UniProtKB/TrEMBL annotation:
GO molecular function: UDP-glucosyltransferase activity
Name of this chain's protein: Glycosyltransferase
Keywords: Transferase
Family to which this protein belongs: Belongs to the UDP-glycosyltransferase family.
Source organism (scientific name): Triticum turgidum subsp. durum
PANTHER family xref list: GLYCOSYLTRANSFERASE
Keyword Transferase: yes
CDD domains in the cross-refs: GT1_Gtf-like
Amino acid sequence: MRINIAASTESLMRPVHETLVRAQSPDAIITDLLFTWSADIADELGVPCVTFHVTGAFSMLAMRHLMMEDAAIDGDDTVTAPPFPTPQIRVPRTELPDLSIFRYVFGKVHSMQAACFGLAVNTFSGLEQQYCDMYTGQGYVQRSYFVGPQLQSSESPTDDSKSQYIGWLDTKSDHSVVYVSFGSCALVSHAQLDQLALGLEASGKPFLWAVRAAEKWTPPKGWEKRVEDRGVIIRSWAQTTAILAHPAVGAFLTHCGWNSILEAVATGVPMLTWPKFHDQFVNERLINDVLGIGHRLWPHGAGLRSEDYEKHELIPADDVARALLTFMHPGGPGDVMRTRVMDLASKSHGALAEGGSSQQDLHRLVNDLMAAKEGRN
């Protein structure tokens, strides 16, 4: 028997969530997009509901179209989104979530968005102008507010372990270090972690690698000794913004989570992309094909990539090393992409400054909610 996880989650979470919300007698509700029942609660309370989306406009649009019933499935089992701005979005079926589950989820999400007061998105118009305009112009939501990038503080870490790796970066030359992080949720097989470790070693590049604290992986025998002069593994929470902001970091090997992308953009660091699940494969297309600030670690056609990490073909150490050496070669792709991403970094700072697009949208959101409250009184 197949269980509808989304429906089960709502039945478990909604009663507690609703009790907490009602106890506060709010004037408005700003809710995670996946708490689809929040719109019903807001309607019953007679207050506006704003959904907050933690990924970008491009991803929202692409996933919306890719999950629709009329998305075309080509002969090579690639899903092509219906009419979409350039470039055309084509994603292998293996890189998409289970369609039957996510069509249910997306159906509920977009019904809620249409009914809600508005949508706030963690992006900024200078990064995704075309897609922000498209989302607003096609009437998917009543009001839209692009208020990003909302990031962790980039202040220097203060505890000893974090000070240690920032101090280590201080000893390296500008743009020489590869920072590797797959976030806190992505699962990677131990065999693949072995190949990544050996690839980092073979590249000869200095690296800082954040490994999930819960990960039980042990590096290949003798590896830590061989790389101790140029490699550091972090097994605690890594303050990514502070690391990426350091001038020694020249490339970010990332899983393409949206927060990680925004951190790289805000700090002006080009990316090597290695997506793992859900919207990350779509985010990769924005980074590489639209913005031109990243490059796939594994070339097209090299092997099967899958949202299911157990089905993802092993990327060999030689390919990892080759990709790093090519990307970070002086005058190579990394340098070209750094120029582009530094321009976006400037735009991201401007968006959050007084009078910037995100600051204006945030003020507009507050003013609209205040006006809605006054209209109810």
